[in-house]
Amino acid sequence: MPTDQYSQLLSAITAAFPATLVELAELCGQPSVSASGWGIPECADLVSRMLRKRGFAVQVFTANGVPLIFGEYRHPTSSKTLLCYHHYDVQPEGDLSLWQSPPFEPQVRNGALYARGALDDKGQLVSRLAALDAIKAVTGSYPCNLKFLIEGEEETGSTGLQAFLPEHTDLLKADACIWEFGGVNSQDTPLQFLGLRGIACFELRLKALTRDAHSGLGGAIFPNAAWRLTWALASLKDRFERVQIPGFYDNVRLPSALDWQMAAEIPSQRDYYRQMFGVQDFLRAAQSPAEAYLQEVFEPTCTINGLNSGYQGPGSMTVLPAVASAKLDFRLVPDQMPAEIAQKLRAYLDAQGFDDIELLDWGGAPPGRTDPNHPFVKLAVETAEQAYGKKPIIYPMNGASGPNYVFLKYLNLPVITAGVGHPGGGVHGPNEHVRLDLLEIAIRHLALLIFRFGNDNAPTRL
Amino acid sequence: MPTDQYSQLLSAITAAFPATLVELAELCGQPSVSASGWGIPECADLVSRMLRKRGFAVQVFTANGVPLIFGEYRHPTSSKTLLCYHHYDVQPEGDLSLWQSPPFEPQVRNGALYARGALDDKGQLVSRLAALDAIKAVTGSYPCNLKFLIEGEEETGSTGLQAFLPEHTDLLKADACIWEFGGVNSQDTPLQFLGLRGIACFELRLKALTRDAHSGLGGAIFPNAAWRLTWALASLKDRFERVQIPGFYDNVRLPSALDWQMAAEIPSQRDYYRQMFGVQDFLRAAQSPAEAYLQEVFEPTCTINGLNSGYQGPGSMTVLPAVASAKLDFRLVPDQMPAEIAQKLRAYLDAQGFDDIELLDWGGAPPGRTDPNHPFVKLAVETAEQAYGKKPIIYPMNGASGPNYVFLKYLNLPVITAGVGHPGGGVHGPNEHVRLDLLEIAIRHLALLIFRFGNDNAPTRL
Question: Would the pTM count as exceeding 0.95?
């Protein structure tokens, strides 16, 4: 990109920044809580209008009962297509007393915009639209074919999207994908995540009696739901953190030499974890930051998310509980699949004599990784360095999960991250906010990235 | 007891029955919830007045911060002393919407008086006072020395009483004790309980992190409180119901030949348990009702009363919980002691590597048994048969617990049960009530029992 054109792009972004904030505030002011359904149709309408006014043709599908928005811009000559994946739904606001301003009344203070969704994911969506606006302002048009896929149940598991995508591969066909998130670490260094772990969520539920009993009555002779649940859980993972389900590790791929190379560039998070979560002893001793990262992200996990049975109030109560339940999630690494894990878990519980335990499948997503050597990855990294003035840190995989697998498998495209995210931004918590300085830099990065993606011959450096 | 005197006793009980109901209603109308302290001092005053108006000298001690009432009547000539143990506190009312009439506004309907405490323990106390009134009405005086010990924290563990009693053995010296409960089974057959299991209540509490984490972040490397609690619990008892704490069974006495003899007369409860609690498979297969009873009551137990950790709402939440807790009770049999079990439990948790688990001791009581061959037991059984017209069933031990150990050990007296209890009376639940027919029969039994205890030479049969 010629220097004068890049300067024009920066100027266009700066000139439009107040309008960008207004649009973000309007979007964040529209509740869209997928857990309860609050404002979901209204928000879908608003997002559709935002695309249409930019010249996109918009189709609204219904996936799992929820509006799924597809917006498309067809370039007159370009053969290249960029797909942006987003979601317009947000997490519930949680404890309102912890918010300094109402979650759906956006407020700018201390150089940041505060609102539920400011980062996750409305700020991300707006940053990409603002980048496109700037490119158009400078060059007169978008640089390539564009597709936006914007779902309304990312915060509740993307069930509809994961079913929709394999059925609409022609519609969604593209050469590259920008994922719904992206951003910097606590040193404002940009990050590039090239994969997500998979996840499989379950609930184990057990009813051993038709009503609670008195422990003096049945303690010795009645089955106790809490005990059976405890034994079932203890049979799943031993105290050395090894999952005991036969075949659980069958499809686990070890990190490659390239993964180790990338991991060596990733700074250790352990001091941060010690400070933030009070971790005294990590479950694994790491010989190096690289090993620490690979232990954290390249291994599958089995986490108890919750336990519930009997009396939980103050003091004691001599009850023998009739029912008990546990929430459980497995984080999966390539090539583990949620359905495979569900089947192995059920078979193991049965084999262990726990066929009285009901297994509720709360959904999941397979793991997915993008090839770090893909040219689009290199472009994303290069443009990030230009926009942020720092070399990005490349994570071959992120410990979290999302529906990236279907994009990788059915659309066969590279998936990169770029955006306004920053630690401490309150994602999923109170006082979620986007820093305005990072919002502007993210728009610059996205404008550069999209412009260069559409213009192969653009110079790669200033 | 001469026939005409027995007839006079029955007539006196019947004549005073309306007044007995009024007194019971007044007592039940006074809240006295030890869990919250509601009405405790007021109820202690009321009970003191009930004793004083009957000629008792009353001292009110403070035990564990709660009024403990001691009432004494000294007979001019008798050398025999009867001790009655009671409590004036009641369980919380629980869910008010389940009560057909307000718990502290006693109501007589369908031949029963409904109120919190109608059975446990205010109806029992009033039945004994009514028995004494009848004896005095017929003979002009009480038949022996009388002592009433009435505590205010039986429903919360009798902590004060268990400390008070060993320090006041002279004050409480007696020849026999009538326990706070007693009554009939579902066939209106009187029951005689000659012992109580002990109990030791604990909470296991664990804080592994200073705040909840995201399972995608720490699943593989952060300690998880729910997992550690699960493993700790699973280490306490195996799936064959065997407690794994070293030395746990050291002091367990097996049932004697006499226990087996008594057990052979006890009807099986297993059909009732199947119907009431939906038990599909009992933990132990019994060859006979006697064996079923002994399995249920003569073996110590370890019961999880409650589990609490992390997310327990609908669907899934990918949280890694910072804290977890479990409530646990052990039912103890002679000669196990709560302090011994607490020490062994702590040592075992430490030895298993769970020294990060905090052990909260929620109190307990040792097991205690009365010699079935004691003459006072025979008198209680004989008079029950006379009053109820049925041979009582004698239980060498009850599966439940209470502070009888200190009475047996420090006062060295036999402890028997007699009273107004009946199954389905809603003890600890909503709509607690005492059946008026059983109240009158219980007063007869108690009048006969106390009269004959005080008058050695009274004929044993009509």
Answer: no
